[in-house]
UniProtKB/TrEMBL annotation:
Top-rank taxon, per record: Bacteria
Gene field: fabG
Family: Belongs to the short-chain dehydrogenases/reductases (SDR) family.
The protein's name in its UniProt record: 3-oxoacyl-ACP reductase
Organism: Paenibacillus silvae
Length: 254
């Protein structure tokens, strides 16, 4: 068995996928605030990613980099990995946050829509994890945190496709945690309830109010409240938390 390498917090590198806005950007900024090296992945939102990177630089002293890749493509993920390796920024922590939502009746879901949402939400998590985890295994230390959803636990009407992908992420998390535990790598998922991000932009004000009324806390979550949990799971002292799906949801699902 190899020797475990646990770096100081300020020497660690985190890769956050889908980090151009919302929960992803909040996660990146949280890690940056403790001086960690932060790599912000995006696919198309170049300006938004650069703005998030600027906020990270203002908050911390670590190295900040943005990288673009289509997570549906192994080739592009491998190029991203090689770029990080050339800058000595292979991640000690991987946050699989990139994802897209889909709202509508299952009867209206086409095969193309099914394939696209599956590819980004589930296949992208698989490919990015598979390409980044060898570095963690080799140093016998790492943290993989998958951003799931409350709908992956309970399911949601008119969000069958999205719920299915997040349920897959949860199963992926539990199984991989068992596989990587002997290598010193933990795998957990954060499954937020309703969060104040653009993913809820399909709802009008009355629908948002109805949603808030359903939540015992009486409000939506803020991205910072999700990023704080992700950060906690990434800490060295969280090493005995493994294979867990933790849902910060204001008491909505217990």
């Amino acid at each position: 068995m190899g020797e475990t390498t646990v770096k100081a917090i300020g020497e660690m590198t985190v890769l956050v996928t889908g980090a151009s806005g919302g929960i992803g950007a909040a996660i990146a900024e949280r890690f940056a605030s403790v001086g960690m090296n932060v790599v912000l992945h995006y696919m198309k939102s170049h300006e938004a990613a650069n703005e998030a990177a600027r906020r990270c630089m203002e908050k911390g002293s670590g190295r900040i980099m943005t990288v673009s890749a289509d997570l549906r493509s192994r080739e592009q993920i491998q190029r991203m990995r090689d770029k990080l390796a050339s800058h000595e920024l292979l991640p000690d922590i991987l946050v699989n946050n990139a994802g897209i939502s889909h709202y509508g009746l299952l009867s209206d879901v086409t095969e193309d829509i099914w394939d696209e949402v599956m590819a980004i939400n589930l296949k992208g998590t698989f490919l990015c994890t598979q390409e980044m985890m060898p570095h963690m295994i080799s140093q016998r230390y790492g943290r993989i945190i998958n951003v799931s959803s409350i709908w992956g636990l309970s399911g949601a009407s008119c969000e069958v496709l999205y719920s299915t992908t997040k349920g897959g992420v949860n199963a992926f998390t539990k199984a991989l945690a068992k596989e990587l535990a002997p290598s010193g790598v933990t795998v957990n998922a954060v499954a937020p309830g309703a969060v104040q991000t653009t993913m809820l932009e399909h709802l009008d004000q009355s629908e948002l109010q109805m949603l808030e009324d359903e939540i015992p806390a009486g409000r939506l979550a803020q991205p910072d409240e999700i990023s704080s949990l992700v950060y906690f799971l990434a800490l060295p002292e969280s090493g005995y938390i493994n294979g867990q799906i933790i849902s910060p949801n204001g008491g909505w699902l217990t």
